[in-house]
Amino acid sequence: MEIIRTVEQLKDRVGCEKSLGRSIGLVPTMGALHDGHISLVDRARRENDFVVVSVFVNPTQFNNAIDLATYPRTEEADCEKLEAVGVDIAFIPDVKEIYPEPDTRVFDLGEVANVMEGPMRPGHFNGVAQIVSKLFSMVQPTRAYFGEKDFQQIAVIKRMVEIENFDIDIVDCPIKRADDGLALSSRNVRLTPTQRELAPSIHSIMKESLSMMPDHTVAEVKQWVIDEINKVDEMKVEYYEIVHPLTMQPVETWSCGPVGCITVYCGDVRLIDNIKYIKQ
């Protein structure tokens, strides 16, 4: 595996592979890699001739300075994991390499960015669009891989691809969970042992709500999930919305096969998850 730290080297190396007609898979990450990231890499490895993984904590998508400062950074361990699964390039730039000048672009991301994470984290999705568009321009991958834990983010990226006219296949990959159901996240390492025991209740309560779907309204299910999670020690729901799977807009009926998207504070750790309300 090659570790590349400059944009020029990255473009040259990937350009050589593309000139040979090889397909390129890109997995953008912020590091602190876990089995969820590795599942994306495994799929990229299966579906492409050459795989690039970026490891970059992107400052423009953080609207909270403390969150940026405390985000885990584990480069050595990340590289060991990536080499073990056959990654061809680990692109690990510093901030000045990615942003030699401030990125002042503002993307028209539309309705998919105006709900849930949009108002809760002002500027977050624009920062995501900035970094992902830069990576797409640098690598020009055949396919790019994103985990469905960040369900709304995938919709935002697809919107960015549309308005920027990138010829890239965006591949959605299922949520990877621990054995107890907790969605894997780099932020999970910040949970105390007690919080780590409590956190799986997020998924278990949402999963239990699936059985309510035929006989209860969307509003009733939404309120039940919020109330049940808020009963758990150290848990506080920031929002729970049941939304259309494409537009991210709240729905009132089950007919579209909606997705429940949640953000919960477990202590001071912000956890996200989602579940699909699909008739069995």
Question: How much helical structure, as a percent, in the residues?
Answer: 25-40%
Largest sheet strand order:
1-4-3-2-5-6
How many domains, as an integer? Answer: 2
Rg, rounded, reads 19 Å
Helix run count: 11
What profile does the largest beta sheet have?
Answer: 6 strands, parallel
Q: How is the CATH topology of the largest domain named? A: Rossmann fold
Cα distance spanning the termini = 44 Å
Order of helices and strands: EHEHEHHEHHHEHEHHHEEE
**Structural category:** alpha/beta
Strand content: 15-25%
Strands, total number: 9
pLDDT < 50 runs, ≥5 residues: none
Highest-level CATH class of the largest domain:
Alpha Beta
Fourth-level CATH superfamily of the largest domain: HUPs
Quote the average pLDDT. Answer: 97
Choose one word for the global shape: globular
CATH architect. name of the largest domain: 3-Layer(aba) Sandwich
